[in-house]
Specification:
- With about 70 residues, the chain is mainly alpha-helical.
- The protein has a single domain, classed as Methane Monooxygenase Hydroxylase, Chain G, domain 1, CATH 1.20.58.
- The chain contains two helices and no strands.
Length: about 70
């Protein structure tokens, strides 16, 4: 669109739509990760459980900041 000299607002609209789509993918991946990897680690207990919870928390923080 930029190379085709499209109207700036149209380009910004497309960027916004792409951003929302990527955020939806990220949230889906995070949900699956928590539902499987983190839940399994927590049920098994031990230091791996703490690590997985911290990892998920860090991923959530990154998504919130973006």
């Amino acid at each position: 669109m930029v190379e085709e000299d499209a109207y700036c607002i149209d380009i910004l609209t497309q960027v916004s739509a792409a951003t929302r789509a990527l955020q939806a993918v990220a949230l889906g991946l995070l949900e699956d990760h928590i539902g499987h990897c983190v839940a399994e680690a927590v049920s098994n207990g031990g230091p791996q459980a703490e690590e997985k919870v911290k990892e998920a928390s860090a991923a959530i923080a990154r998504l919130v900041r973006s």
